[in-house]
């Protein structure tokens, strides 16, 4: 029995790589009739770097979203002039000691890109998920030579505070190497930039913005898009995904040679997931929580949809499962998953459930039961 294991990270406890390795070891140790095809997956958020094999990893000192110096990793392929950057590694929420979107800046990301441009890197893949910022990329763009000024000719660089004051844009100091670079943006969300479904309303609360300030900040963002339109006669604010990473995607699309791709589509194509699905009988996928958001373009469900295209059985593993939400889906959508299992083995606190040692034990026990069932029914 051949099984593809392609499970997204359980955020805060287990990475996709750890999950794939654990399930593989369990099968090899106890179940002779089960062959695992392990696959590390990520659709642009945390763990994005792990899906790439033909690159060298570099760890460097960078500036995080709050201006603190931290260590972060990215991938490079000097022969082919390529680099892969995971935004969460540099300006992500997981990298800051405090949340303050009014000050949080993408500047550190721009510094990394500038350094790579100097090393003759010209082709960038950017995983957009997990940022701590809501600045439409003005910090990054400032590091790359764009200048943003307020009405008193003071330069505006960092965070929402700076974004709110922008009055004009000067591109005469642009980094020359940027003109020859291209960026592939990989986004795990499809939100546009502004409005109730935009970057500020949907994602800024988790970055520290209070709900009563959503409309005020959204107005700042809208004002910035009008200034951009007046100068360049372009408007990317309604492109799906332009709101990713607090509008960083919008900044890339507007000011650089960029294209944006849905994270799950990019990952499935890059890893040749469809070809691997054809070769197995069962697909095990999953993520930390199975709920309605899982069905809004996230990688595990897109993998499940692909599996059903080839009439493969799908097993979904999750930390928690929102049955009430799943029950609101129609039968055909729910039918994408043949069986779902929460790995929680008893009543526990959130901290206990997220503890890596406990999560490993829970996952091993749950997967053992899944494999036991497969063994029982293998001849039917």
Automatic annotation (TrEMBL):
Keywords: Kinase, Transferase. Pfam families: Gly_kinase. GO terms for biological process: organic acid phosphorylation. Gene3D superfamilies: Glycerate kinase, domain 1 (3.40.50.10350), Glycerate kinase, domain 2 (3.90.1510.10). InterPro entries: Glyc_kinase_flavodox-like_fold, Glycerate_kinase, Glycerate_kinase_RE-like, Glycerate_kinase_sf. It comes from the Bacteria. The keyword Metal-binding does not apply. GO terms for molecular function: glycerate kinase activity. Belongs to the glycerate kinase type-1 family. This is Glycerate kinase. It comes from Gemella sanguinis.
